[in-house]
Predict the 3D structure of the following.
Amino acid sequence: MASWRMLIIAAIVLLVALSTVDAFSTTCSTSHLPVRARVSKSYAKSVMMNDALQSQSPTNNINTIRGEGDDYENIHTTTIATTKSRRDWMRSSSMKVLAMGGWVVSVTNEPRVAKATVMNMDVVNSNKIFVAGQALTKDEALERFRIAKKDLQELSDQYDAIASRGGGDGVRRYLGTVGVTSGLYGIPKVLKRLQEEALDIVEFTEAMNDLDTELRAADTACYSANFVEFSAATGSAQQYLDTAKIDIQHMLQSMEIMAKELPL
């Protein structure tokens, strides 16, 4: 879509540019535009004298400008009017090109759904679907909580293999911060929905806040592991991955606390 839009814009700009060059060439050859500007005779005479000295036939040109003052005054003021008209015409043409480009962008820029924020049944199973503008039901939220807890347990049990195989981003895919295939994707929204279903809302809320903090910390550590070797930061990628492993273990503990407060 983006490349198609850019091709249309480029084609329009090219057509306008070609027509601009052609029209400008025509304008440059025009010498009978209305004369409105007035200049002093002395200034007009000095300009024409300079032109005559630089031409191949200075004698003829000098004789020409030695005529009546109105002659060379009108000739010079015609040149000024022509130049001003060209400038105004080029300015208006530039504004037309900009307006046309903006119109094309607005017409072709159709709103699209951000694929990174909405799950699709074709990609993952129906238990992981978020529907835009629609709140999760109690049963949907409970099922998503079970899946998230299961995926987190799998990440904790196989952490070393996952980190070795996929690095920081491999861990982040399990955390739900990269891609949409993990059960932990969108977990804050799920926990907010389940907050009112908790047996002890205070205990549940504290564990929910702890999970959010631990999730952010683990994600930051994994992200840093991807770039530490190419930055001025101290430490190694493995050190950041080890830090993330501890945060993930704490996440699992928070999930266990919340599970005890839910009717699973």
Remarks:
- The CA atoms of residues 81 and 96 lie 23 Å apart.
- The chain has nine helices and no strands.
- The two ends are 45 Å apart (CA to CA).
